[in-house]
Description:
By secondary structure, the protein is mainly alpha-helical.
Amino acid sequence: MKRWMLAAAAATVLAGCATTTSPTGRKQYMAYSDSQLNQMGAQAFTEMKTQQKTAASGQQDGYVQCVVKALVRQLPADWQKLPWETAVFVDDSPNAFALPGGKVGVNTGMFKVAKNQDQLAAVIGHEIGHVYARHTNERVSRQAATSTGLAVVGALAGARYGQGASDMVAQGGGMAAQLGLLLPFSRVQETESDQIGQQLMAQAGFDPAQAVDLWQNMVAASAGRTPEWLSTHPDPQNRIQALRQRAPALQPAYQAARQGGQAPRCGP
Length: 268
């Protein structure tokens, strides 16, 4: 009953959000405007650059810029017009990210895992996929709805059974929401970004099969793994299998891009 009430309350809040469709055709609910998220993304990126050391090597930054530009050219015109910006952060962890508003960051540790430009395009394409599919907006909208749902259920429980029951709902309901709503939802986003990113890299002239090699490198570089049901990311082997299955269908787009003159030469 608690989960049903939480879901019903969250659904009520989401009903007041704007409804959009993701690039893969999935229905989405947004509580915030693109301009709001773009402003927050730009502010967060500026703060990161002041708080974290950026690489002094212009070669690495140029490498990332080259890949980003090639991928962004495959987006619709209005997305290409965003003020895309890149930064390379001095950090040994193999990580990359993209923020609303077109801000892309890559850790220096990623270059040890992404062995060539195609593999780097797989990582950055995935992160750009998050931005293109408005996943940040979608996630914060869902979290806001879930928090409101918990408050409603807690108030009802408190009115009937007292403050102790209200506190129990807040604690137990928060865990139920995390495992039952927010984490699975994040895995949907990760899978969707894989699909978008692999398609973007093929259209940009990067080999989509290299996405498989990239994630195999990522697995090899990872010491441990959280169970899928407790993670925001799909199981690595499931992810690799899905990327492998999509790659053959994307080869015609890749070959057409190369024959059409889209043959990125970004390095390293």
